[in-house]
Amino acid sequence: MDYEFKVKTSSEREKVEDLFDFEGCKVGRGTYGHVYKARPKNANERSDSREYALKQIEGTGISMSACREIALLRELKHTNVINLQRVFLSHADRKVYLLFDFAEHDLWHIIKYHRTAKANKKTVVTPRSMVKSLLYQILNGIHYLHSNWVLHRDLKPANILVMGEGPDRGKVKIADMGFARLFNSPLKPLADLDPVVVTFWYRAPELLLGARHYTKAIDIWAIGCIFAELLTSEPIFHCRQEDIKTSNPYHHDQLDRIFNVMGYPLDRDWEDLKKMPEHPTLTKDFKRSSYQGCSLSKYMEKHKVKSDSKAFQLLQRLLLMDPTKRLTSEQAMNDPYFLEDPMPTADVFAGGPIPYPKRDFLTEEDNDTDKANAQANDKVRSSIQNAADSGPNAKRVRLGPGPPQPPQPHNYQQQRPQF
C-alpha cells in the first residue's frame, strides 16, 4: 500500500478517543476484553447525548473470533439482540473497539441483588410479571437468532442485558456473540468447529457427554437454567469449575450436579443416551441408584415453586434431558404460561421504579483482580481462540441470501402478547 495514502487515510479516520470519553470508566471485563461506559465528547453541543458501551477486544488486531462477532452483529437486527453501532480500529496500538448501546443492568446483577436480599433475610421477591417478561423477551431474541441459523452457545445471566431509563427502558438485549456460530442443515460435526464453550453451569448434558453436533436445543437448555435461576435466585446447576481449562467436554462434577437435581436419565426418556461418545465413561462413573430420590419437582418445591404451576411445567419442558424433546423457542413462546396473568410486558419493570443499582466503575483494586484473572484466563482464551481461528469458515460470514429475515408469521394463539 502506498505510504502517503496510508498516512492520509489514517489521519482522516475517526478515532474512538477523539469521539468519546471513557478513560477510567471501566464497568466490566469478559474473557475477550474490557467494557467501558462511554459518552460522546461535547455532548452538550451534539444532538447525541446517549451513553454507550465500548468493548475493547483483548489483544492486538482482529482475531477470527472478533471477525465472526462483528460480521454477525452487523447483520442481526432485532429488538432483543444488542445493537452494534460502530467498529473502531486504532492503528496506533492495533486495538479493536466495538460500540454498543449501553445497558444499565444485566441478569447477573439483578439475580445477585435478590440472592443477597434473601441471604440477609429481606423480603425482596422478584416480581412474577418481571420473571415472565424477562423470559419471554429472551425467547423472542433467541427465536430470531435461530430463525436466521445462528446459535448463541454462551447464554448465561451476565450475557442477558436489560436497558435502564430511556427509550428502550426495560427491554432485554441478548449480548456477547463471541461464541455464536452459524449452523447448517445437515449439521456440521462438532470437531469441525471449536470444541469448547466456556460456562459449564448452563451447558446442556449432551455437550457434557461429547455430542458431535450443535443443535438449537443447547440454547434452550441454557434458557431453562436461566429461568430456574430467576425463579429461585440460585444457579440450578452450580458446581466447581476447577478444570475449566480442559478441552475435554466431559465434566464429572457438572453431570453429578445435574443428576442431583434432575435424577439420572432413564433409557425411555433419552433413547440416544447410549449413543453419546462419553456414555462408557458415564456408566463407569455413575450409578443410577445414587439419584433415585432426585427430581426437578422436588428441587423446585424446596424453592416454593409448585409442580402444578404453569411456570414449573414450562421449565420442565425446557430442561428435558433428551435434546430432541426440548421445546423450541417458538413453542416456548406459545406456552400457556405466557397466556395467564400477569401477562408479559415490553418493559420488564412494568413501568414501576427500577430498584436495582446502576453499574459501578471498577476501582484500582478491581483492576488488580482483573489483571490476575486475565493472566489466569490467558491460556483459556488462547486455546479457545486458536480453536476458533482454525475453523473452516474463512470466507465471509453471511446469513443466507440477503439480510437476515424476521421470523415468519405463525398461527399463534390470538392471546399471545404483542409488543
What does it look like?
By secondary structure, this protein is α+β, with helices and mostly antiparallel strands. The chain has a domain at about 105-340: Orthogonal Bundle (Transferase(Phosphotransferase), domain 1). The protein is about 35% helix and about 10% strand. The protein contains 13 helices and 11 strands. It has helices spanning about 5-10, 15-20, 65-75, 105-120, 130-145, 205-210, 215-230, 250-260, 280-285, 295-300, 310-320, 330-335, 365-390, and strands at about 20, 25-30, 35-40, 50-55, 85-90, 95-100, 105, 150, 160, 170-175, 180. The strands form 3 sheets. Strands 1, 2, 3, 4, 5 and 6 form a 6-stranded antiparallel beta sheet that branches. A 3-stranded antiparallel beta sheet has the order 7-9-10. A two-stranded antiparallel sheet has the order 8-11. Residues about 375-405 and about 405-415 have low confidence and may be disordered.
What's the end-to-end separation, in Å?
51 Å
- Please identify which CATH superfamily of the domain at 105-339 we are dealing with: Transferase(Phosphotransferase) domain 1
Q: Under CATH, the topology of the domain at 105-339 is which?
A: Transferase(Phosphotransferase), domain 1
Number of helices: 13
Global geometry: globular
Contiguous runs where pLDDT drops below 50 for at least 5 residues:
373-403, 407-414
Average pLDDT score = 83
| Helix-strand category | alpha+beta
Largest sheet at a glance? 6 strands, antiparallel
Radius of gyration: 22 Å
Instruction: Determine the strand fraction and express it as a percent band.
Output: 5-15%
The CATH C-level class name of the domain at 105-339 = Mainly Alpha
Number of strands: 11
Assigned CATH architecture of the domain at 105-339: Orthogonal Bundle
Helical content class: 25-40%
H/E element sequence: HHEEEEHEEEHHEEEEHHHHHHHH
